[in-house]
């Protein structure tokens, strides 16, 4: 089986989506004769080229990060390039991988419905979607993300053998669906610590003051 993987992370270098895909591919290629074609999408020309390669592909996995409940603009551009193929991709297998920083899978469920609708509009076989939250920073700390990466490997291994996604496996990997209610007082303290230790450090690194982070340039 030849799988064409489209990585839609807009980052030019190491990216969390790519790291998850590495684990998935390792599992997928454990089955003899499985092949992977990797297509990187992070500039205008690459989106156009990707659409051409999508048309020729046998089986497809489209992977990207979730930004504030939405796909990156470049991925949307790529999908819009597929309009001439609507209703013409009978038999093509298409699946998705979406990763993000929030822990709960529910953040990607709205997008999941859109992706499933799009796949059916193309007349492709919808394989399902790998959803994984809590992925912020795995590119900086692979050891700390061992469980996340192992899960991606196991999904890739199963897909490589069965040639379809195992829905029960996907649901288990995406958990938790929603976060349990936490003590408001504890969460308030926790968020203050996160802001101080993570965001203030990031602001300083990029020359942003804490006050300016609340700017609303388009408010008026």
In short:
Helix content is 43%, strand content 15%. The protein is of the alpha/beta class. The model has no long low-confidence stretch (mean pLDDT 91).
Name a few traits of the molecule.
5 strands, Rossmann fold, alpha/beta, 5-stranded parallel beta sheet, 2 domains, 220 residues, single chain, 43% helix, globular
CATH top level of the largest domain is Alpha Beta
Q: Indicate the percent of residues in helices.
A: 40-55%
What order do the SSEs take from the amino end to the carboxyl end, as H and E?
A: EHEHEHEHEHHH
- Poorly predicted regions: none
Number of helices: 7
- Measured between the Cα atoms of the first and last residue, the distance is 54 Å
Rg of Cα set: 19 Å
Which shape, going by the Cα principal axes? globular
Q: Care to count the β-strands? A: 5
Order the strands across the largest sheet as they lie in space: 2-1-3-4-5
CATH architect. name of the largest domain: 3-Layer(aba) Sandwich
- Write down the CATH topology of the largest domain: Rossmann fold
**So, the CATH homologous superfamily of the largest domain?**
Flavodoxin domain
Strand content: 15-25%
SS content category? alpha/beta
Tally of individual domains: 2
Task: Describe the largest sheet.
Answer: 5 strands, parallel
């Amino acid at each position: 089986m030849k799988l064409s993987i489209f990585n839609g992370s807009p980052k030019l270098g190491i990216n969390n989506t790519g790291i998850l895909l590495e684990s998935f591919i390792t599992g997928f290629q454990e089955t003899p004769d499985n092949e992977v074609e990797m297509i990187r999408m992070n500039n205008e020309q690459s989106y156009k080229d990707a659409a051409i390669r999508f048309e020729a592909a046998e089986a497809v996995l489209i992977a990207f990060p979730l930004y504030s409940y939405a796909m990156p603009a470049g991925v949307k551009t790529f999908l819009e390039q597929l309009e001439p193929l609507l209703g013409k991709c009978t038999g093509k297998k298409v699946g998705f991988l979406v990763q993000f920083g929030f822990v709960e899978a529910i953040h990607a469920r709205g997008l999941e419905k859109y992706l499933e609708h799009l796949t059916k509009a193309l007349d492709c076989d919808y394989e399902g979607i790998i959803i994984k939250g809590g992925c912020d920073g795995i590119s900086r700390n692979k050891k700390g993300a061992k469980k996340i990466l192992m899960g991606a490997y196991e999904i890739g291994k199963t897909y490589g053998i069965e040639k379809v996604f195992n829905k029960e496996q996907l649901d288990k990997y995406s958990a938790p669906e929603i976060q349990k209610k936490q003590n408001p007082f504890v969460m308030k303290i926790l968020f203050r610590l996160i802001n101080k230790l993570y965001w203030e450090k990031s602001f300083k690194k990029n020359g942003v003051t804490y006050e300016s982070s609340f700017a609303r340039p388009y408010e008026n």
